[in-house]
Write a structure and sequence with these properties.
The protein is of the alpha/beta class. Helices cover 31% and strands 27% of the residues.
Length: 217
């Protein structure tokens, strides 16, 4: 899990195949196509029969999971107890109230079973599983593709015209990674934006603006 996290974010998170190799969530920014920057959290692994003294500390590391937009469940596809481990993960998610969150399964270590990288999709064409090898760097681009599809959701792709006095809104749109192009004119600037609708609507509401009032007439 941490090896995959390192590969995606070029972070230096301690990676080891042992209990509690990760005790605290580690957060990194990740740029996702058609979405912009997202926060990726590497949390503690889920195990059975957690010692009572560690329960509260263990729960604290899962706070990031409960508030996430998407859970990425990293699975050792070469492990003979894979299915049992998956059931335990779902049991823990149900216990902490995160079992209804969207999830993408990542079947890691395909190099150990001779499997080629691929994306599995449901009947609606949405990704639900990605096969890859984090250590070998195979299939990472497929994971990024799946993340883009699942996180983009309802994307706004439009132009907005901002007068000079709306410089704070302009800065916030840039900070969110939503500005694709910018052109200047006498009235201010025209921004071509492409970003998740939820993020745009939140920023506009905080700035007291409405999208229809900013679009070219």
């Amino acid at each position: 899990k941490s090896t995959l996290f390192n590969s995606l974010t070029e972070a230096r998170v301690y990676a080891a195949d042992q209990l509690f190799a990760t005790l605290d969530p580690t957060l990194r920014r990740l740029q996702v196509a058609d979405v912009g920057p997202v926060v990726l959290a590497d949390t503690v692994g889920f195990i059975r029969h957690l010692p009572h003294k560690l329960v509260e500390a263990f729960r604290a590391t899962l706070e990031e999971a409960v508030s996430s937009d998407l859970l990425v469940h990293v699975i050792d596809c070469a492990d003979e107890e894979r299915d049992d481990h998956c059931r335990q993960v779902h049991a823990v998610l149900a216990e902490i109230g995160a079992d209804e969150l969207p999830m993408l399964e990542v079947y890691n270590k395909i190099d150990l079973i001779g499997q080629a990288p691929r994306i599995d999709r449901d009947e609606q064409g949405r990704p639900y599983r990605v096969w890859l090898s984090a250590r070998r760097g195979k299939g990472l681009e497929l994971l990024m593709e799946a993340l883009s599809e699942l996180l983009a959701g309802d994307v706004v792709d439009t132009d907005v015209v901002l007068a000079p006095e709306k410089s704070r809104l302009r800065s916030r749109l840039f900070a969110l990674g939503g500005v694709q192009e910018e052109e200047y004119n006498e009235q201010g600037s025209t921004l071509h934006i492409r970003m998740p609708k939820a993020d745009l609507m939140r920023v506009l509401a905080q700035e007291g603006e409405k999208l229809e009032n900013l679009q070219p007439r």
